[in-house]
Recover the amino acids of this structure.
């Protein structure tokens, strides 16, 4: 089985012309975001940040327990069946 990893979506926080400026800004953002990195381009240094996506709350489904003699679910299943009418023979 393959475990698929989701790619992280990084957002660019700022661009700087020197690495020292970018590194100082990265140190400031380190406490606010989970991951912070400096990416080097040709003439610029970009500070990128990533935060984990918020977790979705799982909704628990509650199964309805049927009491003895309760045929309501059975009736609902049979409601959609086609009924064939036979002409009465006399």
């Amino acid at each position: 089985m393959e475990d698929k990893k989701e790619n992280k979506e990084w957002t660019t926080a700022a661009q700087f012309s020197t690495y020292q400026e970018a590194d100082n800004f990265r140190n400031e953002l380190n406490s606010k975001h989970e991951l912070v990195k400096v990416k080097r381009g040709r003439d610029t240094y970009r500070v990128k940040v990533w935060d984990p996506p918020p977790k979705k709350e799982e909704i628990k489904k509650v199964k309805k327990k049927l009491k003895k003699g309760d045929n309501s679910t059975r009736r609902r299943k049979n409601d959609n069946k086609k009924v064939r009418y036979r002409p009465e023979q006399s």
Notes: The two ends are 68 Å apart (CA to CA).
